[in-house]
Amino acid sequence: MTAPAPRPAVVLLSGGLDSATCLAIALDDGFTPIALSFRYGQRHGIEVESARRVAERVGIEHLVSEIDLRTFGGSALTDEIDVPKHDDVNDLDDTVIPITYVPARNTIFLSFALALAEVRGATDIFIGVNALDYSGYPDCRPEFVDAFQTMANLATRAGVDGAKPLTVHTPLIDLTKADIIRRGVALGVDYGLTISCYDPTADGRGCAHCDSCLLRAMGFREAGIADPAQ
C-alpha cells in the first residue's frame, strides 16, 4: 500500500506550554509539522532553546528566524520595562492589556509563517493562541485570527491560485489552561522541556510570580497534575 503523502503545516513554536501542546495536536491530526520559532529581541533566549528541545523530541524540522522587535520596544519583553510580578493568580487583571503584550507580535509571526507555508507548499498554520485564562492580548482573539486568515488568502499567490485556501488553526483558543494541559498529557507532551516564564532566573527556571508563571501553576493545579518543570 502506498504511504499517504505528507501534509505539511507550519507550527509556531515558542517553547512554552501552549505551543508545545499545539504542536502535539498538529501531529495527532496527521500533519507533518515544520516548527518556526523567533529570536525577536525578547529579554531571554531560554524559550528558543526550549522550542529546540520540544521539536527535537518529536523529530521534526525546526527553523529559527531572527527579527528585532526591540527597535520599537513598548513591551516589558522587548524594552527596559519591569515585568509585573504578583503573589497570587487572583491578583491578575484581565480587563486591561498587560505591559507584556508585544505590539503586533502575532501579526508579524503569522506573516513569517505564511511566507514559509507558501514556499513549502503548506496550506495549514497552527498557532497556540488562547482567549481564556487572562490573555488580555488583542492578537489572541478569534476575530484577529479570522481576519488574518482572510488577508492571507487575498495576499499570496497560493491564496489566489491555489486549489485549497490557507487555514489558520487555533486548537487551544477556547480551552482553559487546565484543559490544555490535560490534552497535552494525553498526547504525550513532555512539559518538562517547556518554559512559560516572562522573566526566568539565571539558571533558566520560572520566576513563579509573573503572569505566565502564575497561570501555568494554576493550570497544573486545576488539572491535578504536577508540573515536571518544577
Q: Any overview of this molecule?
A:
The chain contains 7 helices and 5 strands. The protein has a single domain (8-223), classed as 3-Layer(aba) Sandwich (Rossmann fold), CATH 3.40.50.620. The chain is globular and about 55 Å long. With 230 residues, the chain is an alpha/beta fold. Strand 1 (8-12), helix 1 (17-28) and strand 2 form a beta-alpha-beta unit.
Tell me the β content: 5-15%
User: Radius of gyration over alpha carbons?
Assistant: 17 Å
How many extended strands?
Answer: 5
Q: Give the fraction of residues assigned to helices.
A: 25-40%
Strand arrangement, largest sheet?
3-2-1-4-5
Q: What is the level 1 CATH name?
A: Alpha Beta
The CATH topology name reads Rossmann fold
CATH superfamily: HUPs
Order of helices and strands: EHEHEHEHHEHH
Counting H and I runs of at least 4 residues, what is the number of helices? Answer: 7
Shape descriptor: globular
Poorly predicted tracts of residues: none
Number of domains: 1
Distance between the termini: 46 Å
Determine the structural class based on helices, strands and strand pairing: alpha/beta
Largest sheet features: 5 strands, parallel
What is the CATH-assigned architecture? 3-Layer(aba) Sandwich
Q: What is the mean pLDDT?
A: 92
